[in-house]
Design a protein that fits this description.
heterodimer, A: alpha/beta, Rossmann fold, four-stranded antiparallel beta sheet, 40% helix, disordered C terminus, B: ABC transporter involved in vitamin B12 uptake, BtuC, 73% helix, globular, binds adenosine-5'-diphosphate, binds magnesium ion, transmembrane (chain B), membrane (chain B)
């Protein structure tokens, strides 16, 4: 189980997280929603070790992990699929997937997972030898997700996986996220598309300027008046 | 025609070591975004190490070459750990100033340690040239070319075929994403600087016995290394190899047909032309290995 307690993070002097507490329990899909700049990506970066919290606690299975390197955190089973896909543009699709398995030493298991990814994403197999930068946006997103899964994580964090994709592809991405959860992985997903995120998740947190302002089940948040107004009727939904 | 063939052979020999030099420099720039002003001094360091190992300590010539390259890599690693790592978040001006300072220190240390007189490095190769038809080549030069090509090939295999090489290229392209894959970006930086420096030292170690070894040899070569990198496009590895051979041929043909005295100037003339006409370098950016 992942737990954040009163986590504060600052970029230089500018506070980005002002005391965030949240949890992802075994088998859960948790959504993190909120406007641009609310601190969603910062939260994920803090969990994966890219940022160090100034205060508060981050624990994973009860062990403190704040301050550990991204490598150590990945080794403990938390993968981070970053915002904007961030595939390695000049590496081949296959090399990108192998980068996901960099810390693993079980060659047979890696080969098996590679086959599984290719079976799930035939486009990636077709383009296995091609530079990832030549893929379409949708294909790159699939690659970024597959790459994160290649580490065999127990928790995978997706940062705006549907960003900039055509509606049909957005649907596909959400299906994949659900599949991942059905396989027993914990999922922490950041989404601008609040309606979809709330429909999909077990629980959700609404962030505003570095604070959790509302938490609860998907339907509960969907029903709450301020969420409806700010995210479901307004700009986020229109986007 | 015969003369042209001779220049071609000489240019190839020179180009091989220039390619080593350029690849080392462009690799460091590509991965770390550091303009490495110590590169020429590492070249000189390699040459002096071969001199010291062979002439002063009496160690086997081939073993000395290997040791000189490894010592160059170790010196590079030390520079990265002591000077660059603490400056990871500093602005580019500070980093440049520190690197220029380091180059000055290294150069003066060479002057102080070895004196101003040029040294000769004895090699086990015959002093009589091999003659094949109209061409004559010193056996040592053939050896230098073969070793340079072997190093280029080895470096390419390391980068293209190994896990560590893939991690290095990934870091080259997106350091933060690489960190999320579990790459120790700090160590990749150290390794990159060590490998780049080792290649420069290897180039110096190889050419030391061909020419003479002197404390100022690093200056001109440092400039040439930048010329090679600009020819190939900054951060472009195949470009640096091509730029290295291009510079070798330009110097050799320019020196042979136009003027020996201005031999070194031809390379810089070419740079000015390239910067004016094709500032991205001779090789298209999309062909970058990184
Ligand atoms: N690298 C950075 N340097 C300085 N400020 C940043 C940086 N990244 C994000 N911020 C600031 O931190 C806050 C939270 O950003 P972020 O976590 O990216 O928001 P979200 O992902 O919810 O859109 C914003 O005010 C943003 O401007
Ligand atoms: Mg974000």
């Amino acid at each position: 189980m992942l737990r954040l307690e009163e986590v504060e993070v600052a970029y230089g002097r500018v506070a980005a997280l002002r005391g965030i507490s949240l949890e992802v329990r075994e088998g859960e899909l948790v959504s993190l929603i909120g406007a641009n700049g609310a601190g969603k990506s910062t939260t994920l970066k803090t969990v994966s070790g890219l940022l160090k919290p100034a205060a508060g606690r981050v624990t994973w299975d009860g062990q403190p992990i704040a301050g550990l390197s991204p490598r150590e955190i990945l080794r403990r089973g938390i993968a981070h699929c970053p915002e904007g896909r961030r595939v390695f543009p000049h590496l081949s699709v296959r090399e990108n997937l192998m980068m996901g398995a960099l810390l693993r030493r079980d060659a047979a298991g890696i080969a098996q997972d590679l086959d599984a990814m290719y079976a799930r994403f035939p486009r990636l197999q077709e383009r296995a030898g091609q530079a990832a930068g030549t893929l379409s946006g949708g294909e790159q997103q699939m690659l970024a997700i597959a790459r994160a899964l290649m580490s065999r994580p127990r928790l995978v964090m997706f940062d705006e996986p549907s960003l900039g994709l055509a509606p049909a592809l957005v649907q596909q991405v959400f299906e994949i996220v659900q599949e991942v959860r059905r396989q027993g992985l914990m999922v922490l997903m950041v989404e601008q598309n609040a309606l979809a995120a709330l429909g999909l998740c077990d629980r959700a947190y609404l962030l505003e300027t570095g604070r959790v302002v509302r938490a609860g089940s998907g339907p509960a948040l969907m029903a709450s008046a301020d969420v409806r107004e700010a995210y479901l009727g307004g700009r986020a939904f229109a986007a | 025609m015969d003369q042209a063939l001779q220049h071609l052979v000489n240019g190839t020999v020179l180009g091989g070591t220039y390619a080593l030099l350029g690849i080392g420099l462009t690799l460091i720039f590509g991965v770390m975004r550091v303009v490495n002003f110590t590169h020429g001094e590492l070249y000189a360091f390699g040459a002096y190490m071969v001199y010291a190992l062979v002439s002063l300590l009496g160690i086997n010539f081939y073993l000395s070459l290997l040791l000189a390259a490894l010592l160059g890599a170790a010196l590079g690693a030390a520079i990265e750990l002591l000077l660059l790592r603490p400056l990871r978040r500093a602005d580019i001006d500070s980093v440049m100033l520190v690197m220029i300072g380091a180059a000055l220190v290294l150069q003066n240390a060479e002057m102080w340690g070895w004196g101003g007189v040029a040294k000769l490095v004895p090699s086990p190769f015959a002093g009589t040239p091999l003659v094949v038809g109209p061409i004559s080549v010193m056996p040592l030069r053939i050896f230098v070319l073969l070793v340079a090509c072997a190093l280029l090939l080895g470096f390419w295999l390391l980068l293209d075929r190994t896990r560590a090489g893939t991690a290095m290229r990934a870091t080259f392209q997106d350091a933060e994403a690489a960190a999320l894959m579990g790459v120790r970006v700090g160590w990749v930086n150290t390794a990159t600087f060590a490998i780049g420096s080792g290649l420069a030292a290897a180039a110096g170690a190889l050419l030391g016995p061909v020419f003479m070894v002197s404390p100022t040899m690093g200056d001109l070569v440092g400039l040439k290394a930048f010329a090679i990198v600009i020819l190939g496009g900054l951060g472009n590895l195949p470009g640096a190899a091509i730029g290295g051979f291009a510079l070798g041929y330009i110097e050799e043909f320019g020196g042979g047909y136009v003027s020996t005295e201005y031999r070194d100037a031809f390379g810089f003339l070419l740079i000015i032309l390239v910067l004016a006409i094709r500032p991205q370098g001779l090789v298209a950016p999309r062909e970058r290995v990184g």
